[in-house]
Amino acid sequence: RLVGGSRCSGRLEILHDRTWGSVCDAAFDRQDAEVVCRELDCGAPVQVLGEDAFGKGDAQMWTQEIQCRGNESYISVCPTSSSLKHTCTNDNDVRLSCSGYTELKLVNGSDSCSGRVERQYFSKWGTVCDACWDMRAASVLCRQLNCGIAVSVVGSDWFGEGSGEIWADVFDCDGNETKLSECSVSSWSRAECSHGRDVGVVCSNSSLAVHDGLVRLSGERQCEGELEVSIHQVWRRVLLDSWSLTESSVVCRQLGCGSVLNFSGSSSSSPEHSHECVTGFQCSGSEAHLGNCSSPQTLNCSSTQQLSITCL
């Protein structure tokens, strides 16, 4: 079993004589990791992690060295040597992260850089639930597919509903990872998922992407804060006047943050481009991102009423 992380990552422990024991990292290699991930139905090993990952264990140390060839189905059939050549403590416990899945792709879009998110778990392809997905996961996926950066996260009305499995695993990415298998994954989502909630992504290298209109919220949490919009590669604040609930709903959708809860004026600290603000976005409400709404005008930030949004 893997403990201290998610179902497919954590400190490795092996059951022997009804007692769980830790495994010393000096006696563990890539072939052993491949067998562990396969036995746990967790795909392929991603990395063996250092001693500060998943906390410190207190299990007794497993006293034999595992010597798998890598093609075994179970760790219990791997040969072992009778004694460890190393002095090991719980600081040396094996800490392992498995991928949990193999392939990802975007389907039904205008090109390979936009579409419904589908992922393969061994031989089964399935869709991903929108309740378990955010803009940070989308950014990592776009990077993994060599598609630039994520422009927006959209619902099933964009790329249609999938069929087959629905994966409700939550990818907890910080957004800087190079592929989704580097993010920690939790299989414990309680979301009620159906194909009506299949998530889609538009990446910046797609023909559907308009580079003007990337958005970010500067608050403490990902789904609330003062709105900044990228226009001609400059981040600008948005003024409250002429803004409505319709434009807010597009921003929340674009960020993968659900629907809009509220928006208001704020007069907090200025951003780095405080002399340039924008006003006059006009959206119908169905757009995937703000860049598809009518173009705003740029003006000086003389008004103190700059825009804050809270999404659900």
Task: Please tag this protein with its features.
mainly beta
Task: Please tell me how large the radius of gyration is.
Answer: 24 Å
Give the CA-based shape.
elongated
Q: What order do the helices and strands follow?
A: EEEHEEEEEEEEHEHEEEEEEEHEEEE
Distance between the termini: 36 Å
Show unreliable segments.
none
Q: Note the beta-strand portion.
A: 25-35%
Instruction: Report the sheet with the most strands, covering strand number, pairing sense and barrel closure.
Output: 7 strands, mixed
Characterization of the model:
The protein is mainly β and 312 residues long. 11% of the residues lie in helices and 34% in strands. It has 4 helices and 23 strands. Strands 17, 18, 19, 20, 21, 22 and 23 form a 7-stranded mixed β-sheet that branches. Strands 1, 2, 3, 4, 5 and 8 form a 6-stranded mixed β-sheet that branches. Strand 9 and strand 10 form a beta hairpin. The protein is elongated.
